[in-house]
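About this split. The held-out portion is used to measure sequence recovery: a designer receives only the structure tokens and must propose an amino acid at every position. Recovery is the fraction of positions where the proposal matches the reference. Here is one held-out target exactly as it appears in the evaluation file.
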């Protein structure tokens, strides 16, 4: 595994991290998730990303992670970085969602209890909440560090101008905003508009989620929708109707470029991100150890020629 320094900090993240959003809930097979986490750790993936609402049901990914840790991995706690988040709907009533101090403090306390951990390595505000003054959310994050509940804090899905204000406020109280987390993949390139410049200027790390566009940027959907796929499970996050004939044609053309490079489409999609200097870590999901093992080969991928990048851009633009 290759490790990258997280922005201007002393903390190194693995080039590939594993997220537990899907495939780690109580609806999933415990033996498979345990093998996936253990395979990841054995292959040098030292970073596991959680959130309070991951499951389903919400909370169960954190409880299952606790069980996996207790069955042998907790002896390696100091070799592992665990992150969690609060900010999306988690429980009923006015305090179960959003960016208030009440929600974040209750959220981290619940998450620590579920995971059985004494502290998180990184704790995030899971989303920008326009109804909450950002100063309130950020003060809660600063206090979480001062209380020792998290070593570092980060932001996820924030507009650049709000993120800038948040970083400045943290710096004024001697807490570094370590890292920014957002969706970035070949099919979803929004961070290129403003965020990449901002992250470079501020010296923040960048961890990119859904690098495979939830499985679209793999060979999963080139010939229909497999019964065991995320799109077939209809969780509501990857909808069947997204997989149009036009998209499949695009994916086939990308797949042909990947084949020409001697790799799978998934490996090429990950390598495309790994070669961006702003990207500290690429945060993948995996429904089996085999997917994970195959995706890890992206870390040994060759770079891209200008011709390849041009062809990829041309396919993505159409
Ligand atoms: N901050 C946020 O708001 C936010 C939002 C979303 C995600 N995240 C984080 O990012 C992590 C990753 O997100 P994601 O799960 O959407 O990532 P992803 O890597 O884009 O998608 C993972 C899915 O792609 C399929 N897949 C993976 N490797 C494959 C391969 N080699 N061949 C075929 N199919 C393959 C699997 O789906 P099948 O089930 O079909 O096998 C797998 O579950 C999450 O777990 C979470 O930690 C954060």
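Reference sequence for scoring:
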């Amino acid at each position: 595994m290759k490790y990258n320094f997280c922005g201007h900090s002393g903390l190194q993240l693995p080039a590939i991290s594993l997220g537990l959003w899907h495939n780690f809930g109580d609806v999933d097979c415990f033996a498979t998730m345990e093998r996936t986490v253990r395979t990841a750790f054995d292959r040098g993936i030292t970073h596991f990303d959680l959130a309070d609402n991951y499951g389903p049901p919400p909370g169960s990914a954190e409880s299952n992670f606790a069980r996996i840790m207790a069955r042998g991995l907790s002896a390696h706690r100091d070799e592992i970085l665990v992150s969690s988040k609060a900010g999306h709907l988690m429980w009923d009533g006015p305090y179960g969602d959003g960016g208030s101090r009440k929600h974040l403090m209750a959220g981290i306390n619940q998450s620590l209890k579920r995971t059985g951990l004494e502290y998180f390595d990184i704790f995030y505000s899971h989303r920008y909440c326009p109804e909450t003054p950002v100063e309130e959310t950020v003060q809660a994050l600063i206090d979480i560090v001062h209380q020792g509940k998290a070593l570092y804090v980060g932001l996820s899905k924030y507009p650049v101008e709000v993120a800038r204000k948040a970083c400045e406020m943290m710096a004024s109280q001697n807490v570094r905003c370590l890292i920014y987390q957002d969706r970035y993949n070949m099919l979803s390139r929004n961070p290129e508009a403003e965020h990449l410049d901002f992250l470079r200027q501020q010296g923040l790390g960048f961890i990119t989620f859904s690098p495979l566009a939830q499985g679209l940027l793999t060979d999963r959907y080139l010939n229909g929708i497999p019964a065991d796929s995320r799109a077939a499970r209809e969780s509501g996050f990857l909808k069947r109707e997204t997989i149009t004939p036009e998209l499949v044609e695009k994916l086939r053309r990308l797949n042909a470029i990947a084949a020409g490079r001697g790799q799978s489409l998934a490996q090429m999609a990950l390598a495309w991100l790994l070669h961006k200097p702003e990207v500290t870590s690429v945060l993948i999901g995996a429904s089996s150890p085999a997917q994970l093992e195959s995706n890890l080969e992206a870390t040994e991928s060759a770079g891209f020629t200008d011709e390849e990048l041009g062809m990829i851009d041309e396919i993505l633009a159409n």
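Annotator remark: The domain at 3-215+273-302 is CATH 3.20.20.100 (TIM Barrel).
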